[in-house]
Amino acid sequence: MSNSVIGSKKKRMTKKTLIYLILIGGSLIILSPVWWMIATSLKTPQEIAQYPPSFWPDSFRFSNYLETWQTAPFTRWTLNTLLISALSTIGSVLANAFIAYGFAVIKFKGRNLLFGIVMATMLIPGFVTLVPQYIIFAKIGWVNTYLPLIVPSFLGSAFFIFLIRQFMRTIPKDMVEAAKMDGANHFQIWWQIILPQIKPALITVAIFSFNGSWNDLLGPLLYLNDENLYTLQIGLQTFKGTVSTQWNYLMAMSTTVLLPIILLFFYFQRYFIEGSNLTGGQKF
Amino acid sequence: MKKWLLIVCAGLLALLSACSSGSADNTNAEGKVELDFWTFWGSETRRPMIEKLIEDFNNSQDEIVVKHTYVPWGDIWTKNLAAIAAGDPPDVIVNDIRTVKIRASNNQVEDISKWVDDDLKNSFYPHLWDAVTYKDKAYALPFTTDTRMLFYNKDAFREAGLDPEKPPRTWKELKEYSDKLTVKNEDGGYKQVGYYPNWGNFTTHDWMINADDGKGLMEGGEPTINTPAKKEAIQWMYDWKQELGSEAVQNMKAEFGNEQQDPFISGKVAMWAEIGTFYKQLEEFGGDLDYGVATMPAYNEDTKPWSTGGGFVMEIPKGAKNPEASMKFIKYLTDVEAQTYWGENNFDNIANKEATKQITENLDGKGAEIFQKSMESLEYTYLSITPPEYPEYENLVNPLIDDALNGKISVEEALDQAQKDVENSKQ
Amino acid sequence: MSGIKEHNVAISTTQRKSVHKSKSSDWTVRKPKMSKLSLKENIWGYIFIAPWIIGFLGLTLGPLLFSLVTSFTDYNVTSQMNFTGFDNYKRMFTVDPLFWTSLYNTVYFVVFSVPLTTAGAVIVAMLLNQKMKGIKVFRTIYYLPAVLSGVAVYFLWMQLLSPSTGLVNTVLAWFGIDGPAWLFEPEWTKPALVMMKMWSVGGGMLLYLAVMQGVPKAMYEAAELDGAGSIRKFFHITLPMITPIIFFDMVTSTIGAFQIFQEAYVMTDSGEGGPSNSLLFYNLHMWNNAFEIFNMGYASAMAWVLFIIVMILTFLHFKFSKKWVYYESGDHK
């Protein structure tokens, strides 16, 4: 008895070590490009132009970061980007969870056809609708405002509707039925029963959509004409010149731009852990 | 939950303020005409220069106020197109000189002929003027241009026993020089390569034009791709590649493809084709590199040292609200004073002849030497204009040339096929 | 709430039963007599999808139909739009050699990238779905590539893939492999891009991680009591439970892979197509037509051909999904 316990403990230890080794190996692969980015952001332009490129910067020029920040109104652009991303993330999570519930849980006439259309909207490349869509927004006077960048998030997107629908369908139907028996309406079921169950999925949508609008270049670029309204991604482009690129600045800014998303991701992860701890005892 | 509400409210407020600032009228409070001017000059170096020019213009008169908006390179034209389609384009935009005719044929630019007289026309280089006209009407004014030249490393010349004051003049010399300048490592790799025709800023198309005595891939609006001289140019490149070893060539091209390391500055390649503004990079990163500059070598003693170039124009997008005021601003930008300022500070070749003359008088030292050379080179610079009938010819020709250089098909076949494909693609 | 949770404990038995139960209560069965209940359900259904309907009618439908109409014209975005019948479609299939090149390149990319990235994401998610010290840090690291975007990433990859000094070939050299010139050799450009995609499986990983949180611990515990090892647990519990998301991932990444654009656009000097046009993907060719030479009519036609191709594939995905996707809710439509 005690022997087998020790044996399985040992087994678990070797398994853990193996997983750590794999994870560390993978991390190195992933981090190496990131290291190039950071290293370049700390070099002088002269060092960057040297061949072969140096792995370790000769001198760590942290002042690059400060200089980069001062080349343009980056503080303002950061706030702009935060505003757009936060609002469209809220919209995205609420709207898509709402719409997906309709498709996943309620049985209504024409559901399959409409869901087919939802899927179909994903299949047409955005280029060909880019100009007509721009014209629509121009006609309703939304060009040079944040509305074209935010309002569509509140109207759902096929990708997220499909995603949340898939998650909702992993929830046992009996739960919905039981709640209905108790006299709950769909709105209550959605808010009180379904949403808490798919928290990890909602967090995922939040991360994806924040990430998406934080990194969006074409949208802001098309719809914003006033430089005061610009976003970070447009700001990043200023370092890429027609003749030469300011690599150290470009990389410094790219690194800076990464930070908020990484922090957000790190923070949101607690919901993942929580979710997994709770589901074991709670859901069943 | 409360926190969320707060964020949403704050956001909505910010939105409203954004909306209100969005409504811009064409005339401002003081009754001046406001012009929206889009450029892709947002970098630390160029932005202050264009903004200085705008400020000078705004201060020089009291009818027009120009507002500058930076839009990133490349995307600027997508945005412009959408804005034209929506009927709300900027008043003035910087655009590519090689495609003015295409935009004119697609009705994307305003015809400015009525404000153009002979004096204005004659103030620009003729080949640039030709590029901005379509069916005898003018659609833009040329702003800048460029021309490729041969930069060479004088120290490397000395080490190889070559006279640093005598750059190669013909293909034959170029090859001889290159052979002398090519140095191998002990392990068989290259320590330094003299020259390779498909690196740098002067590649397949350019050498084909150079070989064909300044005749482009499109002449009179029709493809002239499979001429004997152009075939010879590709064959010449192919042979050169075989001699250096195609793997080595590919590797080095890949090394420099990321645009970060510069092979000329880091001494890996002794002769390198680039446009005049390369001087700015050499100044900044080149340290004490001793280099010279020459016009591109000619095919032989009897042909001219043909180079190629591009450039930018100022134009008024179709549907802009104040074409007359816009034209005034464009005229100012392409006139002597503004052009002189731009050329001196950016080292772009400029479109205005008089201004070019002034700059050569004002400059001194290395800068003057390079600018002088670029003027010489401009005399034999071919501007590859994309003809409206064959807008995608480059996309058809390039892969076939790649295949020929990779030895997949013969040069003969490649260019004949390219000629045929382009002919078929007529729109 | 607690009542609901309790009566759900034995997923494998009650749930499978409910599959049959729900079949009988399907609205299609009761369609003829539209009861008060189903009317109410209909109304609720439309209330819930109302935001999407507004967006679809207001922002999407018009442009979609417009692009369909323009595919039969010589529309050039700004001034002309003459009806040309099926000319654009004819040209695509008979005259334009680049159409076939771009379709081939795209299909190649789809075939390799979709299965590889899906499998990669599941594996990484499995590894990261552990209770271990530092797992949060690892998760963040693995998600990082999905966060990185824009020009900087592609230039980083050019650096990494550079034949003699790049990291990829340096590592290959340790194993005695002479790496290719990647982005500069027509045969290796697409594999290089697939590799890039593999690098950023973090997005997919996050999806799987999220769905794995919903797999009840009790099931694993029960399996452990039966003496099941990790591999059996994976194939008998985890895998079936995450099939809805695998399905989602396959469908969306197929759609996404068909529309690959950004990577190729940046890496090939603004859409030139790379060596021997080996990176001229479908969307890149479409982009060139639409915004470089203003042949929007042709681009729209291309878009609709792609639409049909991907729609058929998506349809097949959905059809076959019934065979392997396991829905807890017991609903297979």
From TrEMBL, chain A:
Family indicated by similarity: Belongs to the binding-protein-dependent transport system permease family.
Chief place where the protein resides: membrane
InterPro entries: MetI-like, MetI-like_sf
Domain annotation ABC transmembrane type-1: ranges: 78-268
Intracellular or extracellular location(s): Cell membrane
Residues annotated as transmembrane: 18-38, 82-106, 113-137, 149-168, 189-210, 249-268
Membrane topology of this protein: Multi-pass membrane protein
Organism encoding this protein: Sediminibacillus halophilus
Gene Ontology annotations for the cellular component aspect, listed alphabetically: plasma membrane
GO biological process, one term: transmembrane transport
Claim: Transmembrane is one of the keywords in the record: yes
The organism's place on the tree of life at top rank: Bacteria
Keywords (A to Z) from UniProt: Cell membrane, Membrane, Sugar transport, Transmembrane, Transmembrane helix, Transport
Coiled-coil annotated spans: none
Protein name: Multiple sugar transport system permease protein
SUPFAM superfamilies xrefs: MetI-like
TrEMBL record, chain B:
Transmembrane segments: none
Gene3D superfamilies xref list: Periplasmic binding protein-like II (3.40.190.10)
Pfam families per UniProt: SBP_bac_1
InterPro entries named among the record's database cross-references: Bact_solute-bd_prot1, SBP
Leader peptide range in chain numbering: 1-24
Keyword vocabulary terms for this entry: Signal, Sugar transport, Transport
PANTHER family, alphabetized: ARABINOSE-BINDING PROTEIN-RELATED, DIACETYLCHITOBIOSE BINDING PROTEIN DASA
Name of the protein: Multiple sugar transport system substrate-binding protein
Organism: Sediminibacillus halophilus
TrEMBL record, chain C:
Record region (Disordered): 1-26
A GO BP annotation: transmembrane transport
Listed Gene3D superfamilies: MetI-like (1.10.3720.10)
Domain ABC transmembrane type-1 positions: 103-317
An example Gene Ontology CC term for this record: plasma membrane
Stretches that traverse the bilayer: 43-66, 107-128, 140-157, 192-211, 241-261, 296-316
Subcellular location: Cell membrane
Keywords, alphabetical: Cell membrane, Membrane, Sugar transport, Transmembrane, Transmembrane helix, Transport
UniProt cross-references to PROSITE patterns, sorted A to Z: ABC_TM1 (PS50928)
Cited CDD domains: TM_PBP2 (cd06261)
Entry membrane topology: Multi-pass membrane protein
Protein name according to UniProt: Multiple sugar transport system permease protein
Species of the source: Sediminibacillus halophilus
